[in-house]
Specification:
By secondary structure, the protein is mainly alpha-helical. The protein is built from seven helices and two strands, in the order αααααααββ. The protein has helices at about 35-55, 60-80, 80-105, 115-130, 135-155, 160-185, 190-215; strands spanning about 220-225, 230-235.
């Protein structure tokens, strides 16, 4: 093991449940996982920028949790403390619940498919029992609720539906990368950093979708800016 001796760890011996394949304190005695920490910096920058530019929108609370998730991620990968890991997971879950609530608020009046909800919740329960992961259960229920309501909201705002579709597809890729880091290619030490970048793009698109819908509900509209066909930002157009 090329990592530093445990006595040289600035934050002490790691206490987290598990961490990425990146060797602990390999590049620095201060950062438990330096590359993972660096890969979160774009998330911090994006989170602050979006939080600062979405004043007056009810979705701003979602942006607050999105930004705090990046802060917690930096704390976790720097210290490798169990408490920081719990905080990281908890804030991400808060963001997911906030997003689900926001999308549900846009979808008030529609009749939910109770059978689909029951089947999905049962599946998540079985998986949670199998892997003893209550956090995963709660996250997946919130994600499933978001997907269902976003689908309904997208019917009302078809001009913005492509943003959510790109976000959902990116989320599937990001989750696949996350599981690959755990199961398949853990020998590639920095695969978890790729997950950070992929999940940033996926979650940012989901946030752009709710921002576009919120802006439209206020009587304005936005133009979706794309790069090579992939959405990345919104340009607000005032309707007089």
């Amino acid at each position: 093991d090329a990592s530093l001796h445990s006595s040289e760890y600035f934050w002490g011996v790691p206490t987290c449940y598990n961490d990425s394949a990146e060797p602990n304190y390999f590049y620095s005695s201060f950062f438990g996982e330096l590359v993972c920490t660096i890969s979160i910096l774009p998330w911090l920058a994006f989170g602050y920028l979006q939080f600062a530019t979405h004043k007056g929108l009810s979705v701003r609370l979602c942006y607050i949790f999105h930004l705090l998730a990046a802060v917690a991620g930096v704390a976790y990968h720097t210290t490798l403390y169990r408490s920081a890991q719990v905080l990281d997971r908890g804030i991400v879950l808060c963001w997911m619940v906030c997003l689900a609530y926001q999308l549900r608020a846009y979808n008030i009046g529609s009749k939910p498919n109770s059978i689909a909800y029951a089947l999905f919740t049962s599946l998540c329960t079985l998986i949670a029992i199998r892997y003893d992961d209550v956090h995963f259960f709660a996250f997946m229920v919130a994600l499933g609720t978001s997907i269902y309501n976003a689908h309904q909201v997208g019917k009302r705002y078809p001009m913005y539906r492509s943003i959510w579709d790109h976000g959902l597809h990116s989320a599937i890729v990001a989750l696949a990368i996350f599981k690959a880091d755990d199961v398949i290619i853990s020998s590639f030490h920095h695969f978890h950093s790729v997950w950070h970048v992929a999940s940033l793009y996926a979650t940012s698109l989901m946030m752009l979708f709710v921002s576009a819908v919120e802006t439209a509900r206020q009587g304005n509209r936005v133009v979706v800016k794309t790069l090579w066909g992939y959405p990345y930002a919104l340009e607000k157009k005032i309707v007089y």
